[in-house]
Amino acid sequence: MAKVAIVGKPNVGKSTLFNSLINKNKSLILDIPGTTRDRIFEYGNINGKDILFIDTGGFERSGEFQEHINEQVHHAIDSSDVVIVVFDLTSPLSVEDEEIFRYVLKKNKKYILVANKSDIKRKEFEYDYYKFGDLLHISATHRRNFDILKEKIVSLIDEEEQKVNCDAKIAIVGRSNVGKSSLINAILNENRSVVSDKVGTTTDSIDTPFEYKDRCFLLVDTAGIRRKSKTKGALDKLASIFSLFAIERSDICVVVVDASEGLTSMDKHIINTVTEKHKGIIIALNKWDLVKKTTFEEYSKKLKKELQLINYAEIVSISATERKNINKLLNKILYVYKNCSRRIPTHELNEKLHSIIRQNAPFSRKGKEVKLKYMTQVDTNPPHFVIFTNRPDEIEENYKRYLRNSLYNLFNFKGCSIKITYRESKNERVG
Fold first, then answer.
1. What is the β-pairing status of strands 206-212 and 168-174?
2. pTM for the full model?
3. Is the N or the C terminus of the chain less surrounded, counting Cβ atoms within 10 Å?
4. How far is it, in rounded angstroms, from Cα 383 to Cα 342?
5. Bond into 345 cis (ω within 30)
């Protein structure tokens, strides 16, 4: 999913444009409390393409708290795939306009120059803005030329997405300061990310393609996820949002855990988030060189016991700074990718389904008979199965877990969070 930032100096119509692009369909709003106004992140959809739009504060050279607002504007630009730079045709060209545009160019971002308030007759400053290049004249209030704007947005996003065509997206996620950036450096064998002992050095998600054993993977380095009570600053909240966003758009998540500290409640929260999103999962026990009093087997057994139902996760011990077991981790990534990409033939699925039923037949919560008629796999990454039954809404949760665990045991979907959907089989209702 692409990210589009809307930037400009104060009062040029950024928020009006933002609301128009998302059609005020506020299915998800994430507010970043700033000092003078909030930053708003919201999902929108253009021509079937999901986009995360970022509304920003007005960029100014001076003013109370302005340094913090400008810093957030820069971070919005840094983390976006496309930037919409908004100018106000009714006001003269300013140094702020020039500074914003220079920063977008410096970051080599795809951009659209928008001349807002073009419906107002007083446009004596219009030609001042042509020094930046071609302008798209719009009216955010009256949605003038919005179809053209949307076409430009989708076109630029498509260009970005076509640059890299990899087999799978791998998100590196975890709490702050557990060694994610060091792990990225170890995988890429270069100091691409800034590594620091200071908590929360990385603030944005940065995608980097790499090849391993003739497979192309897109590696996503994310900022640390923090508990809400510890996410006081705007940039910390920005980091948490982009980390969760990276999980959402990844295929496989490597959850980095500080092995010397053990599994924390926040680690569990992150792991649960990954599994709820049905992503492939590998738990990387980093700083393993600091663990002295237990074996890997004992540690893994204890870890799985703490995670309870999440017993299919792949686990590997590493030391990112010492570059130990990095190839082992890469082999795990390749293994999970192949597992999650498998498609089981329908006849084989149904043979196993009937075998599962013979061992333990299902009953509904109301005590009525449940018939599991037919099973098919409809997708991969994650493996998604549909089971047709006469009572899809009445199957007990315990039986669903039994069926899920049986599929893991029979087909070895290690590292994959399989998805099972129950649908009613027409004309076969019993009772």
1. unpaired
2. 0.66
3. C
4. 7
5. no
Residue whose pair of structure tokens reads 């049986």 in the numeric block: 406
Cα separation, 306 vs 405, whole angstroms:
18
Look at residues 253, 259, 258, 246 and name the one whose alpha carbon lies nearest to residue 272.
253
Strands (E), 161-286: 168-174, 206-212, 215-221, 252-258, 280-286
What is the chain's alpha carbon radius of gyration, rounded to the nearest angstrom? 25
Q: Which of 56-65, 83-92, 171-180 has the lowest mean pLDDT?
A: 56-65
Q: How confident is the model at residue 361 (pLDDT cuts 50, 70, 90)?
A: confident
* Residues 6 or more apart whose Cβ sits within 8 Å of residue 275: 281, 310, 417
CB crowding 290-323: b at 16 or more within 10 Å, else e? ebeeeeeeebbeebbeebeebebbbbbbbbbeee
User: Residues 290-331: pLDDT tens digits?
Assistant: 998 899 999 999 998 888 768 899 999 999 999 999 999 999
Distance CA 317, CA 324 (A): 9
**At what angle are helices 95-106 and 66-78 packed, to 10 degrees?**
40
- Chain CA centroid to CA 128, Å: 40
What's the Cα-to-Cα distance from 379 to each of 109, 246, 272, 354, 385, rounded to whole Å? 34, 21, 22, 21, 7
What is the distance between the alpha carbons of residues 41 and 397, in angstroms, rounded to a whole number? 35
